[in-house]
Amino acid sequence: MECNGIRGQCAERAPCNFLPLRLPHHPNPQRIPGEAAVNNTPAYAELAAVHARLHRLGHAVAMLSWDRAAMMPPGGSAARAAGEVELRGLIQGMRRDPRIAELLRRADDEPLDELSRADLREMRRDWREASALPESLVAARTLAGARCEHAWRRQRPDNDWRGYLENFHEVLHLAREEALRLSEATGLAPYDALLDRYEPGMTAAELDRLFGALRQWLPEFVAHTRARQCDDRVVTPPGPFPVAGQRALCAVLLERLGFDLSAGRLDESAHPFTGGVPEDVRLTCRYREDDFLPAVRTVLHEAGHARYNQGLPRAWLGRPVGRPRSFGIHESQSLYFEMQLGRSRAFLELLPPLLRAHLGQSVGFDADNLVALFTRVAPGQIRVEADEASYPLHIVLRYEIERALIGGEAEAEDIPDMWDERMMALFGIDTRGDYRDGCLQDVHWADGSFGYFPSYALGAMYAAQWAATMADAVTDLEARVAGGDLQPVFDWLAEHIWSQASRFETDELVRRASGGPLDPTYFRRHLERRYGG
């Protein structure tokens, strides 16, 4: 699953060949969010009006992007790409208008409250990124990514790595150029500059520390857990499981997880994602008639993204401070729902009647067997179907490859060999010649989203930290979940994560929510408690 909608927060900043627009001045106080009086804060008020307009235009881009992935007929690809480029160009012209720099300087001297200061911090980040990238470059990147992603949809099933390379070369070339220009603007190393778009403040040096630690203990933990489980009796429920029944089941699960279907919808796509804006959240799933587990896991994952989107403060809509904090924090919500909550015994005890109602009476739907199925450690090739113990290793693999690609230490042609070597080292799996379930399985590199993958492993670490903190704070949490009462979970996440949006920078948000900084030992302790060892 991907957070394409949240990715949309970044991807929708892609511009085109439009001249910068003159920023409109809005003197009407009712158009300006926050408490600051317009007469005392005219520069901030004008910036706020621009960002409110950007939010509305971003909604339109998000819907175009969702439709392209979920509904659009293949023949519409070229026209849709051209239309998206035009709209993104309008957005980019507003974001990088030279007058914004002066407004930011003037707003610094205005009497702003704490929330408006946070707004200003995020506006400055947005301006720095937008002004670093020429409109022609991001227009080219948008078109190249659209072509590559659209072709990838048929190249992956065909195991067509050679055909994929024809479009991917240009995507990689433009991503490197973006990285260099962002590096010049921020003073960060090129890959760090890309990483900063998704996880502000994170660096490759810090990821090397975090992921290096995972490399030291996690492969052995996975191997030992797999050996301990080898004699466990696990029944694989026999299919087929009609897609119509799976769709109905996933819709019920979404409602049980608190998703408001009157302000969103569930559809299908080649690669699952969540998109849209808080007022209109779009999720997608994919189904297999021989196995219902991937769809259930996907909808749990996407529900976490969707609940975060819908839980963002409505009073802050249109303000940068009202956006999701980071992609790692966003992934912490999806991975909390999918892994921490969704694979717990307390939650899995709620599933048997739902499975029987929508998929029919089947062997293996009892709670004990579901626990065994959902906590089975069986390393495989597919990231989105990985068990929670081996999942972060899929991210380490991708991080190491994409960092080398952006740094020029590897070329596109080197990806399969790098992939095969790491899959064997980390998982003991031979992937030679299997591009479909190897290096072609993800959409991220096809659309140029370099720097995104680390957010998943960071999200798993954050999620474990939230779970431990929540368990300490909420009395009888496990028993309440087992009884069907998920509201304490939603309340804790709403108070500490969703309602805070981007009010605080990531480190401060984590400290306020959990009492300390990101600590990967929470993740290790979680795995040891759930799986032993």
Architecture overview:
The chain is an all-alpha fold and 533 residues long. 60% of the residues lie in helices and 3% in strands. It has helices spanning 4-11, 42-70, 77-95, 99-108, 114-132, 135-155, 161-186, 190-198, 204-229, 243-256, 293-311, 327-341, 345-348, 351-359, 367-374, 391-406, 415-427, 454-473, 477-482, 487-496, 506-514, 521-531; strands at 264-268, 274-277, 280-285. It has a 3-stranded mixed sheet with strand order 1-3-2, sandwiched between helices. A hairpin with a 2-residue loop joins strand 2 (274-277) and strand 3. The longest helix has 29 residues, at 42-70. The protein is globular. The model is unreliable at 1-37 (pLDDT under 50).
Report the structural category: mainly alpha
Q: How confident overall, as mean pLDDT?
A: 91
SS summary, helix count: 22
Low-confidence stretches: 1-37
Give the overall form: globular
Based on CA atoms alone, the radius of gyration comes out at: 23 Å
- Percent strand: under 5%
Quaternary organisation: single chain
Distance between the termini: 29 Å
Strand order within the widest beta sheet: 1-3-2
Largest sheet: 3 strands, mixed
